Amino acid sequence: MIRRGFWLVLGATGGIMGYRRVARLGRRVSGTRGTSRARAGVRKRRWARETIRFTRDVREGMDLYAARHPGRVAPTLRASADTDNAEKDDR
Prior knowledge:
73% of the residues lie in helices and 0% in strands. It has a domain at 36-68. The protein is built from 3 helices and no strands. With 91 residues, the protein is mainly alpha-helical. The protein has helices at 2-30, 37-68, 81-85.
């Protein structure tokens, strides 16, 4: 129990520190500090446009995958009928 608490605290601390660093990097990359608001607006629009394009590409890829792998509708975590009827090995 103590070991789990240790890893929980360590993960939370690392997550907070990582989030702050990523946020700082995002502000630096977006150029919101030290540049004019007009340039920052252009950059934000460009990032938004690229994000939308990326999302469309991912959705298109998912559609292609679904088209190439049809028929898997049932959950795959259940035991199959073959497993239920098979004799058990008592080794």
